[in-house]
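Morning. Coffee machine broken again, so started the prediction first thing and wrote up yesterday's gels while waiting. Chain of 238 residues, entered below exactly as on the submission form.
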Amino acid sequence: MVADNEKTGKCPICGNSCIEAHFKECVLYNCVKCGKYKMNDFGNEPKLTEHHKLVLRHFYSVIPQGDPRRYSIIIDNDNIDKFVESIDYPKNLVEKVDNVLSYFVNQTKTYGQFIVIQNKDILSNKLFCFSTDEFDKIIHYLITQKYLTMATRVMSDPESYAVTMEGLKYYQEYEKRVSINKNKSKQCFVAMWFNENSEQKNIDLTCRMSIQLQSNLLLNMKTDLLLSKLITWSTATT
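Came back before lunch.
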């Protein structure tokens, strides 16, 4: 397919330089940072919020250039909210902090291994940080909580961090809570609908309500734990 015209423009997601290939039904953007993706630009272009941009920056920074999801959807103002919500991302600050720690845990092969940050800008996008400044603050918080430790370096060396025993313990407790929640959910949904009688429907409804309550309880416990630490740390540093 040949474009009607091409020009150099500005990526609507990250603001970097890009090539805009204009077709009859859409514009194919080829950004130096986000790669290729399609958007409507003919009266129904998406009105991107900062939240949209954050999630899309992450999404397009982690999927391969040849991934069909880059080309199978033309993002417009009608589908942008649904498309963004279909992407898995941290929904709050607590989940974002956990996400950063999870990255270092999953990258670690041996205890005490320092994980080098080659490109902080790209990594902060992948971990859903609004900026490298927010990424630095989360790293600083994880260090003050003794979940991460920073390698000694000279100015020319890239930053590198290692997961501590405390960080590993916190992550294991978090994973255990998530696992328990998933197992309880699976057990409740086993063969609930044997017939159409009202008693069976009530059992199914009760089970679903129980699952929601368990999920909310675990989320509140986790949120309270980390928020209390964030508040304590913030008070200590002011």
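The first helix runs from residue 50 to 62. Going to sketch it on the whiteboard this afternoon.
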